[in-house]
């Protein structure tokens, strides 16, 4: 397996994985093509994007970025996904470690991410990688 920086030619494969991952429980998101393509393009141009590749097939991806905060640089993991049949092989862990290595080199001291409370496999992964729950509460408002 190889972890490498995503290229423009990878976007279709990333979009396919993105749709698969986020259509599953607990997310249950249905991504129309026009929104999915826009989302993946925005991410590709605004964040750091890496893929996991096995024998020429893209089997996973990670999107992340860093930013300045009052107490130094912070990192944020935006999205992480691995094709179903390749799960349990350590791919997500390797993608996370790649992001952590890059962010650490950029001076990041703390990384944040959001995870659904009922995304049990994701929670196990992040806990195994020593991510801890914070005091923060995620809030949302629907605009009419």
Give the gist of this structure.
The protein is an alpha+beta fold and 144 residues long. The protein contains four helices and five strands.
Q: Could you describe the 3D structure shown?
A:
The chain has 144 residues and is of the alpha+beta class. Helices cover 35% and strands 27% of the residues. A 5-stranded mixed beta sheet has the order 1-2-3-4-5, with helices on both faces. It starts with a strand and ends in a 16-residue tail after the last helix.
Write out key terms for the chains shown:
single chain, 144 residues, alpha+beta, five-stranded mixed sheet, 5 strands, 35% helix, globular
Low-confidence stretches: none
Strand order of the largest sheet: 1-2-3-4-5
Largest sheet: 5 strands, mixed
Order of helices and strands: EHHEEEHEH
Q: Which geometry do the CA atoms define?
A: globular
Radius of gyration: 15 Å
Strand content: 25-35%
Helicity range: 25-40%
Number of strands: 5
Task: Tell me the structural class.
Answer: alpha+beta
User: What's the end-to-end separation, in Å?
Assistant: 46 Å
Provide mean pLDDT, rounded.
94
Number of helices: 4
Topology:
Layout: E1 2-5, H1 11-23, H2 33-46, E2 48-54, E3 57-69, E4 72-82, H3 91-105, E5 110-113, H4 120-128
Parallel strand pairs: 4-5
Antiparallel strand pairs: 1-2, 2-3, 3-4
Helix pairs in contact: 1-2
């Amino acid at each position: 397996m190889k972890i490498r920086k995503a290229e423009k030619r990878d976007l279709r494969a990333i979009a396919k994985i993105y749709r698969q991952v986020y259509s599953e429980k607990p997310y249950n998101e249905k991504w129309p093509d026009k929104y999915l393509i826009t989302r993946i393009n925005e991410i590709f141009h605004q964040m750091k994007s890496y893929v996991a590749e096995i024998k020429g097939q893209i089997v996973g991806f990670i999107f992340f970025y860093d930013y300045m905060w009052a107490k130094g640089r912070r990192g944020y993991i935006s999205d992480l996904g691995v094709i179903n049949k390749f799960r349990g092989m350590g791919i997500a862990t390797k993608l996370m470690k790649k992001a952590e290595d890059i962010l650490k080199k950029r001076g990041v001291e703390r990384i944040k991410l959001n995870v659904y409370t009922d995304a049990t496999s994701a929670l196990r992964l992040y806990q195994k990688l020593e991510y801890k729950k914070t005091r923060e509460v995620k809030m949302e408002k629907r605009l009419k």
